[in-house]
Design brief:
Its EC number is 1.11.1.7. This protein has 353 residues and is mainly alpha-helical. It has a single domain, classed as Peroxidase, domain 2, CATH 1.10.420. The protein is 43% helix and 2% strand. Strands 1-2 form a two-stranded antiparallel sheet. Helix 11 packs across helix 13. It is globular, with a radius of gyration of 20 Å.
């Protein structure tokens, strides 16, 4: 009974931190496919589980895909659309180019789902389920995913460049970026905890190691021992963009070590460390809370993921159910060449995991 009371308190704490938020969208329901595709959850789980056997990064990549989808015109599967004569793919936006992973796994899920339940399940819903499965396979929390989203008929590379937060953002910039999506400071700190697993490219944090803010010195909020480790992985003038773990302690496990890393000044990205090292920021107490109690972090993560998954969803007769996730129905002629941003600073946007 005591442990059950602790769980109840933790969940109530999560709801208190998200005061004013209703977890479910009235048009979405975890039972949406119970009759039309009863094996959906098993299909998604099996495909991702098999992929994880050879790719330990896949869980983090799939959560990132869902995040990058929802922050650009809502959770509508637009991030999955390839270039065509009429669509400029979000995959070629600065935050995504050459860094989005898991698209092949999503396509494999879609193929399996179409074999079992033709023209029934949206790609946007597949992304939402995949994010939950990724959390579970990494040792993180599970939740009943609200379903019933439909897929967009278009994409927006411009909004992808505009809306996705960058790894050099300050706390104020991060808060503003999340607020634009209807997410609060608790959501910001909670969802940032997905950096508890996955990888990041050296180019995203190289300035912290050698000339932070063009000072010629490293970032003073970076642990000096960790600094030397990272310099060994990321030489200043290297021609190859190496990758390293976002979480130096448990790289492939979904846990709360991300927050204790921040307390020890071992946050990899500037935008991560800012959550703890910004004097007077509301984010500091949240980092301390999640570091001290993993169950509180997990409970809040569930709330924030469901909340994010509700952003500007298409339902009813809006959009469509794509039969291929990469193309709108009736248009499968893609152009292969992507168009990268000409702004070199934009090319540093959150290309992690």
């Amino acid at each position: 009974m005591g442990s059950m009371n602790a769980v109840v308190v933790t969940v109530l704490c999560a709801f208190a931190m998200h005061a004013g938020f209703l977890v479910t969208n009235a048009q979405l329901s975890p039972t949406f496919y119970n009759e039309t595709c009863p094996t959906l959850s098993d299909i998604v789980f099996n495909v991702i589980s098999n992929a994880s056997l050879t790719d330990p990064r896949i869980g983090a990549s799939l959560i990132r895909l869902h995040f990058h989808d929802c922050f650009v015109q809502g959770c509508d599967g637009s991030v999955l659309l390839n270039n065509t004569d009429s669509i400029e793919s979000e995959q070629d936006a600065a935050p995504n180019i050459n860094s989005l992973r898991g698209l092949d796994v999503v396509n494999n899920i879609k193929t399996a789902v179409e074999d079992s339940c033709p023209e029934t399940v949206s790609c946007a819903d597949i992304l939402a389920i995949a994010a939950e499965v990724a959390s579970v396979l990494g040792g993180g929390p599970s939740w009943d995913v609200p379903l019933g989203r439909r897929d967009s008929l278009n994409a927006s590379q411009a909004l992808a460049n505009q809306n996705l937060p960058a790894p050099f953002f300050t706390v104020d910039q991060l808060i503003s970026s999340f607020a634009a999506q209807g997410l609060n400071t608790t959501d910001l700190v909670t969802l940032s905890g997905a950096h508890t697993f996955g990888r990041a490219r050296c180019s995203l944090f190289l300035s912290r190691l050698y000339s932070f803010n063009d000072t010629g010195n490293p970032d003073p909020t970076l642990n000096t021992t960790y600094l030397e480790t990272l310099r060994g992985i990321c030489p200043e003038n290297a021609t190859v963009d190496n990758i390293t773990n976002l979480d130096l302690s448990t790289a492939d496990q979904f846990d709360n070590k991300y927050y204790s890393n921040l307390q020890e000044l071992n946050g990899l990205l500037q935008s991560d460390q800012e959550l703890f090292s910004t004097t007077g920021a509301d984010t500091v107490d949240l980092v301390n809370s999640f570091s001290s109690d993993q169950s509180v972090f997990f409970a809040n993560f569930v709330v924030s993921m469901i909340k994010m998954g509700n952003i500007s969803v298409l339902t009813g007769t809006d959009g469509e159910i794509r039969t291929q996730c990469n193309f709108v129905n009736g248009n499968s002629s893609a152009t292969l060449a992507g168009v990268a941003s000409k702004d070199p600073k934009l090319n540093l946007v959150a290309q992690s995991k």
